[in-house]
Design brief:
The complex is a heterodimer of chains A (423) and B (1018). Chain A is built from 20 helices and 3 strands. With 423 residues, chain A is mostly helical. Chain B is 29% helix and 20% strand. In chain B, the strands form 13 sheets. In chain B, strands 6-5-17-16-15-7-8 form a 7-stranded mixed beta sheet, sandwiched between helices. The interface between A and B is large, with 57 and 49 residues.
Chain lengths: 423, 1018
């Protein structure tokens, strides 16, 4: 019986739980009869380009739009807004005028059910803004404490040892006195005098010293003008990690001239706005330890808007442009000619070969040394793709005919000649 | 033996008891040095907390800090566009077709721009009649970046707005409604401008349009108008000519706008044993004379007689030896029939008419599609000048002309200053604008819209290649605004073209892209807007020879032309092709006259050239202190002087060179009679070539057409031999080589061929090289020290005897020491009427280069593509290479020429530096530099082919070298000799091909083509 009761209890409990879950979940779905998940997918593929939930985009903000308009009207509007406007619907005409007569794409393919789903999604309550938890720096430092304790113990032992030796020495001295043994003090010659007297040692150490000094001097002088690791603070904190890493945007999308010109090109701000017209806030992962919070990134996007003259609230360009003064990271001297297109387009070198793991760089830095030796090493080792380029056809043919050579490095093709890079 | 003499320093010492003497014995100085004064008073010194030691500490610390800071690289900012224009990709040049029509030069050109900056002028290959793309046109891009340009409109000397400008102008015109106002303009050759001027004149009937060409072609225009009914100049196609007889017409220079050398050159290369024959009768040694087969120096006053003798049978006044040559020329002309042509530069209506009549059946002269560039009418201009002086004319609007500078009457200046209304449209505050009440600042042609008709039936467009640098407006823009409201000149131009010029099938965009179109449209020309009165035939003034008088011929130089671009350092430093002198104009005189007048030219210790000064008198006009240069080939009794110099207003001090010869341009005739008087003093010329003859050496090879046709090439173009084991072997024999060669058969191997037959010496290549390679300007003083930086020079040689052939014979016949001393000495001096040869010399890119072996740091090395590469950053400046170079083509940077106030030329200001080519580094002090075969361009072409995955196209390399691309005559050809289809691969095997100083065994990659003269009777 007891058992049964217990079973009943448990089943009752689970029922209760189920009921609770059901009630709770239906309470969300209660006012709309649509599928939030399906709605979200539809929203993202069809609406998100022009609408945002809580902010004006090209079109109005859509949160709780279902409450503002009648469902039937919304069906008509979404399926064919222009038709509705032409039919002279006053609400439609007013809305059209409010948003600068920008025509909303018609979605005749969406069923009423689909629209319900979308509206269900847009009717979700606004999530509470995440409170940026202050990075916990006062982490309980167990390791540190342990080290301190060990250190203290060691110091204590050392101290004890010193005292012990002192005592031993004292008692020995007493013993001497008691036994009447005189201490024989030989005339002390300081160590340095012995050292100085030994000419061989002097010579060897002088040579050693000079060699070591030369080594360090060489090291010091050779790094002058080499800015490997140079990571200046930029006027806008642009994260390659987010763009090239998390979002996997191709390098050439922004640095488009790398394929056709000697310069890779710093993208003009209108290129940024291709995406950022619609992305006004950061919703990715936050790196709280370094202070890279959503708030931080949003401010950087605001800087972009300021520079390009984009009024996000009004969704229009103000015309007040403030060009961004980026700090140049990769500098080659004027007497070196480097061409990106030669390497990117012709040779097919990956950007990362020279620029390092850009997709992991939160702050861009100079990965390679950019010295001539570094260039030449690569030219010596890299084989030129002779087969898939019409230009090399004749050269390849002649080479294989004359010397029976099938593979050639850039150096062997003349890539080490001074005049190829210096003019 | 020592003497006991005592030397007194002063009388005071006589007095043994003098206190002063005693005092001086004690003290070093007569008076107490006031050390207290400059060391400061003790109080302040003591109150200061800075001790001497502290001071030294500060010095030490700051020095250390400064040197540490120097190790840090500077922070470089990069600023991208906010909204990038579609057409601009950083690092990729854009090209725009446009036209220059500045009133003196008319040409269709292609402009290379980088990141929105025009940096170079190139020829437009789509234009069949492109006009003269000469040195001035190539240099015109730098004139845009002139820091002395006007930055906006000015009223009464103050900068103002265009609205205010408009208000002032309309008020003034309104005030002078009933008075005579003259619109004095350059020749625009622009259909839309003519249309606008007609509209303007309709609105203000009191304004009369007069066209003023600073260098007049008025008589030729009058003659053509008389014969053919329209005001134009005949065009000539010398590629159809078998015999050309020029009487005083420098048609390879600037005669009638120039631009004839292209067609001329086509007939100068022997084909099937034939080439044209060119007779030149002239007084100054001109480019045409230098290129002629037969050149006859003759006084200007006799030129009309020569012409008469050529077309009729009168031989009055002509000396015997001239008559013989005239007779010869005449026979040749008769034989050539329709393919013979006479041209003349005599400023005389009858002479011009005579020539037109003679040529009317010639296939060389084109009167159906004549040139519609110059339109000026001297008689009208004369009236304007006199009208202003007399006060008859109350207002003068000048556009693109500079009458205060270029009018012959000096009284005009004061009269102009007192005019009730003066308005000048000008790019700079030139002599005229500086005195004008109102100045309309105009843009450079590279910032302007416009259209042109240089030749009937051929229309071209002018388009901006950069946004106006300053607050400027075109004259046409103002006209549009004044005559019709609410429209811009661009709209007007586009409408006009679509309504009048573009025929069906022609599109505006295509026309703008090509720069030129042909159309049968009939449009108004400048001539239609200024209606002239009765034609005035003019005779040469004062041809009677009074004793001691010299006949002066005024001419224009290839560098400065009419003088509008006087503030352009490239042009100032361009050596004159004939005299090889830079930064000057001077009187050219024959050696005989010079001796008679006691005029001397001599070389001073450092090799530079000095010359005497003279005062020049012409009636009441006097020009003081004119330097004189002895010019071989100058007709005895005549002198020459270049126009376009002596400008002072808005001209940088360094470029205020020479004397203003326009004061002698009376009645707009270049021929005048003058007297000169030697005065004290020596002028310092900056001449880049001091040795004028070859002295029979094998530098420029030449032969006659007769020999070329009949004898084997080994006779007239032998391969030099060298001695090996006491046996003579050819230098090309592998046994003669000290070095082993690379295998250069794979990939391109560049060669440059220079045809000495078609090189006219015009200098366009020199300027093009300047622009492409950021060659610095060094200034007159440095040129005098032979430190000019031109990577490409055009050597000019005179023959010591009457011809180079006789020179050679003379040298061959020298034997014995005495004879060699005397005769070689004689051969240093050019003949009175020498033959002339031009030879462009740049780095020869030797396959066995002497420079490479002596460089201690391997800064110069050889590439497999045949280029001798100079690595500036590696060079330490030992100059061994220059010493070991047999061609003397290496240039050393003695100073820092960029951003250095000592060399205040274009590289010393932000505006001027905009012309620099970003693909070529600006060299620093202490490094050697030289021609690189434009490696930046050859590499760019190879890279383009690689990117597109194809072979380099045929002929693609020819335009990569700035010099070969600029060459109008095709004398320079650049290309890949491994490409069997290329022109260059044939040229290096040509019978005429030879290497300069081949006997040295340097195996150059520059090959010259032997010059063939058509001198002997066939």
């Amino acid at each position: 019986m007891k058992k049964v009761n217990f079973h009943n209890l448990s089943s009752n409990l689970s029922l209760l739980l189920l009921a609770f879950v059901l009630v709770f979940s239906t309470s969300i779905l209660a006012q709309e009869n649509g599928d939030v998940k399906a709605g979200e997918a539809l929203y993202k593929s069809n609406c998100a380009a022009c609408h945002k939930l809580d902010k004006k985009g090209v079109g109005p903000a859509l949160r709780n739009v279902a409450e503002k308009y009648e469902r039937d009207w919304l069906y008509k509007w979404i399926k064919n807004s222009q038709g509705l406007i032409k039919s002279g619907d006053s609400k439609a005409v007013a809305l059209f005028a409010e948003y600068n007569n920008s025509v909303m794409t018609s979605f005749p393919g969406l069923s009423n059910n689909d629209i319900d789903n979308i509206l269900a999604y847009t009717s979700l309550p606004k999530p509470e803004p995440k409170i940026a938890v202050a990075p916990v720096t006062a982490k309980n430092n167990d390791d540190g404490n342990l080290q301190n304790i060990i250190l203290a113990v060691l110091v204590l032992i050392l101290l004890l040892l010193v005292i012990m030796f002192y005592l031993v020495a004292k008692s020995l001295a007493k013993l001497y006195k008691v036994n009447g043994i005189e201490e024989k003090i030989e005339p002390k010659i300081p160590l340095w005098k012995i050292f100085v007297k030994n000419q061989f040692l002097m010579l060897v150490s002088a040579i050693m010293f000079l060699l070591v000094a030369a080594y360090f001097m060489y090291g010091f002088f050779m790094q002058i003008g080499i800015d490997q690791g140079y990571a200046p603070v930029q006027p806008i904190h642009y994260s390659h990690k987010i763009h090239a890493g998390a979002n996997e945007i191709d390098c050439n999308y922004c640095h488009s001239s790398a394929r056709k010109s000697k310069h890779s090109g710093i993208p003009s701000l209108n290129v940024c706005m291709n995406c950022h017209k619609h992305i006004s806030e950061y919703n990715g992962e936050e790196d709280l330890a370094n202070g890279y919070t959503k708030d931080f990134y949003d401010k950087e996007i605001a800087k972009l808007y300021d520079a390009v003259g984009w009024d996000d609230a009004e969704q229009r360009y103000t015309g007040e442009e403030k060009p961004v003064k980026w700090v140049r990271i990769h500098n080659l001297p004027d007497f070196v000619y480097f061409n990106h297109s030669q390497h990117v387009k012709v040779a097919g070198v990956e950007c990362q070969t020279c620029h390092g793991p850009v997709e992991e760089m939160e702050i861009m830095y100079q990965h390679s040394s950019l010295t001539m030796g570094w260039c030449i090493d690569c030219h010596r080792e890299t084989n030129v793709d002779l087969e898939n380029n019409g230009y090399y056809e004749k050269i390849h043919e002649e080479l294989s005919k004359k010397y029976n050579v099938e593979k050639l490095t850039a150096a062997e093709l003349g890539g080490l000649e001074c005049g190829k890079c210096h003019y | 033996m020592s003497s006991n003499k005592k030397y007194w320093k002063s009388v005071e010492e006589l007095d043994e008891s003098s206190s002063i003497v005693e005092l001086l014995k004690q003290n070093e100085f007569v008076e107490q040095i006031p050390t207290d004064e400059f060391l400061g008073d003790k109080n302040t010194l003591e109150s200061s907390s800075t001790s001497r030691r502290d001071f030294l500490k500060y010095v030490g610390f700051t020095t250390a800090a400064a040197s540490l800071a120097a190790c840090e690289g500077p922070v470089i900012k990069s600023i991208p566009y906010v909204v990038a224009p579609d057409e601009i990709v950083p690092g990729i040049p854009n090209f725009y077709a446009t036209s220059i029509a500045d009133g003196f030069d008319f040409a269709n050109v292609l402009i290379k721009t980088r990141e929105g900056r025009p940096i170079k002028v190139e020829r437009n290959h789509l234009a069949k009649h492109s006009g003269a793309v000469n040195a001035r046109v190539h240099a015109s891009v730098l004139s845009m970046y002139d820091k002395n340009r006007l930055e906006g409109p000015k009223v009464m000397g103050e900068y103002t707005s265009w609205i205010d400008f408009d208000k002032n102008v309309s008020n003034r015109i309104e005030e002078l409604k009933d008075e005579k106002i003259i619109l004095l303009t350059q020749s625009f050759a622009s259909p839309t401008t003519s249309e606008l001027i007609i509209k303007f004149q309709k609105k203000y009937p009191n304004i009369r349009h007069v066209i003023y060409d600073s260098i007049s072609s008025s008589e030729a225009l009058d003659a053509f108008e008389d014969k053919y009914g329209i005001r134009a100049l005949p065009d000539y196609d010398f590629s159809n000519a078998e015999v050309i007889v020029s009487v005083g017409a420098d048609f390879i220079g600037d005669w009638q706008g120039g631009g004839f050398e292209g067609s001329y050159a086509k007939k100068r290369i022997p084909k099937k044993g034939k080439m044209s024959r060119h007779y030149q009768f002239e007084s100054n040694m001109s480019l045409s004379g230098a290129n002629a087969d037969v050149r006859i120096p003759i006084l200007p006053s006799l030129q009309l007689e020569v012409l008469k003798a050529l077309v009729s049978d009168s031989y009055i006044k002509l000396p015997k030896q001239v008559s013989v040559l005239v007779e010869k020329a005449k026979k040749q002309l008769k034989k050539a029939g329709k393919k013979g042509v006479i041209i003349t530069g005599i400023p005389d209506f009858d002479a011009q008419k005579m020539v037109l009549d003679y040529n009317q059946d010639s296939v060389v002269m084109d009167v159906k599609y004549p040139r519609t560039t110059f339109m000026g009418r001297s008689s009208e201009v004369e009236k304007v000048m006199n009208g202003v002086i007399s006060g008859d004319i109350k207002g003068l609007i000048s556009v693109g002309v500079n009458p205060v500078y270029s009018f012959p009457d000096a009284r005009f200046r004061d009269a102009y200053k007192n005019l009730p209304f003066s308005l000048a449209f000008s790019m700079k505050e030139d002599e005229t604008a500086a005195l004008a009440q109102i100045i309309g600042a105009t843009p450079h042609y590279l910032e302007s819209w416009g259209d042109c008709q240089f030749k009937k039936g051929t229309f071209s467009l002018m388009q901006p290649t950069i946004r106006p640098l300053f607050n400027t407006q075109q004259f046409q823009e103002c006209l549009v605004r004044w005559t019709q409201s609410g429209s811009s000149y661009y709209d007007f131009l586009k409408d006009f073209w679509s309504n009048n010029i573009l025929e069906s099938g022609n599109h505006w965009n295509q026309a703008l892209h090509d720069g030129v179109i042909t159309s049968k449209a009939k449009v108004k020309t400048d001539a239609d807007t200024s209606i002239g009165e009765v034609l005035i035939s003019k005779k040469i003034i004062n041809t009677k020879k009074s004793s001691g008088n010299l006949e002066l011929t005024l001419y224009t130089k290839t560098g400065l032309g009419d003088g509008q671009q006087a503030n352009n350092p490239w042009l100032q430093e361009l050596p004159d092709p004939i005299t090889r002198t830079t930064w000057d104009n001077y009187i050219t005189i024959s050696a005989t006259d010079a001796t008679r007048l006691g005029i001397e030219n001599n070389n001073v210790a450092n090799g530079a050239l000095n010359g005497s000064y003279v005062n020049l008198f012409m009636g009441e006009t006097v020009i003081n202190k004119v330097p004189v240069l002895i010019q071989p080939g100058q007709a005895q009794g005549s002198i020459g002087l270049a126009l376009g110099y002596g400008r002072t207003s808005s001209i940088q001090k360094e470029m205020q060179t020479g004397v203003n010869a326009y004061r002698l341009y009376k009645e707009f005739s270049p021929i005048q009679t003058v007297t000169i008087d030697r005065i004290e003093g020596e002028h310092e010329f900056a001449c880049v070539q001091l040795h004028n003859t070859m002295m029979g050496r094998d530098i420029v090879r030449e032969t006659t057409l007769e020999v070329f046709n009949t004898k084997d090439a080994s006779k007239w173009n032998p391969v030099p031999v060298v001695s090996k084991d006491h046996e003579e072997i050819s230098v090309n024999d592998p046994g003669a080589d000290l070095w082993t060669s690379f295998d250069r058969t794979i990939g391109p191997h560049f060669n440059l061929s220079i045809d000495l037959n078609t090189c006219t010496g015009c200098g366009a290549c020199v300027i093009a090289c300047h622009a492409e390679n950021n060659v610095p300007v060094v200034g007159k003083e440095e040129v005098r020290k032979s430190r000019d930086m031109h990577w490409l020079r055009i050597d000019r040689y005179y023959s010591s005897e009457e011809s180079f052939e006789i020179d050679l014979d003379k040298k061959e016949n020298i034997s014995g020491l005495g004879k060699s001393l005397s005769e070689f000495g004689e051969m240093e001096n050019p003949s009175e009427n020498p033959q002339v040869a031009f030879m462009p010399v740049m780095c020869q890119h030797c396959n066995h280069a002497p420079c490479e072996t002596v460089c201690p740091v391997a800064a110069t090395s050889h590439g497999r593509q045949g280029q001798n590469q100079m690595t500036y950053n590696r060079c330490v400046g030992t100059r061994y290479c220059a010493n070991n170079c047999p061609y003397k083509v290496r240039r050393f940077n003695w100073f820092l020429y960029a951003q250095n106030d000592q060399f205040d030329f274009n590289m010393n200001n932000d505006l001027g530096r905009m012309v620099l080519n970003p693909d070529v580094v600006v060299r620093s002090r202490g490094v050697m530099e030289k021609c690189s075969f434009c490696i930046q361009s050859t590499q760019a072409i190879i890279l383009k082919a690689k990117r597109e995955g194809r072979q380099v196209k045929k002929g693609e390399f020819n335009d990569s070298c700035a010099c070969s691309a600029a060459c109008d005559t095709g004398a320079m050809r650049f290309g890949d000799i491994n490409d069997e289809e290329s022109i260059i691969s044939d040229l290096i095997k040509d019978d005429r091909a030879y290497h300069l100083l081949a006997e040295v065994g340097t195996k150059p990659n520059v090959v010259y083509q032997t010059k063939i003269r058509n001198t002997n009777e066939v």
